[in-house]
Amino acid sequence: MKKKILIIVSNANAIGPNNRRTGIFLPEVAHPYAEFSRAGYQIDFASLTGDTPYLDALNLASDPDNLAFLTGKGWEAMQKAGKLSDANIDSYDAVFIPGGLAPMADMPENALLKEVIRKTYERKAIVGAVCHGPVSLLNVKLSNGSYLVNGKNITSFTDEEENAYAVADVPFLLETALTKQGAKFHAAAPWSAHSIADGNLVTGQNPASAKGVAEKMVNILESKKK
């Protein structure tokens, strides 16, 4: 039976006191989409509000997987993303949250998103996120009352990377926030490809890590077939 992946995207298009324009960072959705497609999975999109999401980093469109996403079925499907509250979450084998600065604007406290992440994780389906996408894991409490990230080996966009990129625009530093909730945070060199799987939780540090996150998710899904 074909595996099903739900990509959950932000609806934000601006962030911070200077109204910095933002959206989903193109390679962070396009590269995983390509990996999931190559694996033969069904890929659906949902956004927090059901409104059309925004894309950032269109200047990277010449990358083959980015271009294939923009001109193929990927971007078309993302524009038609359903509303997260309408999604049958239990029917998906994995959820994936791409980054860009947008998730930092509307995902830190979204109650429905936190419940979706909790339920997905607790039923042993896969939760994947990259760059600023792991903000979706922040403030998620499991049924036992502990934070999901507590004691987990994870990564995300690092404080060092943020200080050189958008520290004036984000409401907080993601690495610091995840660590405060008990995450065992692993940082690699800035902008290098770095992804981690801890059980059914898979995270990546930055745009270069998106492909690796998807590859790890596919490996876990394929291992479950055996």
Report the CATH topology name. Answer: Rossmann fold
Oligomer: single chain
Spatial strand arrangement across the major sheet: 7-5-1-8-9-13-12
Radius of gyration: 16 Å
Low-confidence stretches: none
The overall pLDDT average reads 97
Percentage of residues in DSSP E strands: 15-25%
Number of helices: 8
Major sheet description = 7 strands, mixed
Q: Helicity range of the residues?
A: 25-40%
Name the CATH homologous superfamily.
Class I glutamine amidotransferase (GATase) domain
In one word, what is the shape?
globular
Q: What is the end-to-end distance?
A: 13 Å
Query: What is the CATH C level class, in words?
Result: Alpha Beta
Number of domains: 1
- Helix-strand pattern: EEEEHEEHHEEHHEEHHEEEH
Instruction: Count the E strands.
Output: 13
Provide the structure class: alpha/beta
CATH architecture: 3-Layer(aba) Sandwich
Characterization of this structure:
With 226 residues, the chain is α/β, with parallel strands linked by helices. The chain has one domain (4-223): Class I glutamine amidotransferase (GATase) domain (Rossmann fold, 3-Layer(aba) Sandwich), CATH 3.40.50. 31% of the residues lie in helices and 19% in strands. The protein contains eight helices and 13 strands. It has a seven-stranded mixed sheet with strand order 7-5-1-8-9-13-12. Strand 2 (14-15) and strand 3 (20-21) form a beta hairpin. The protein is globular.
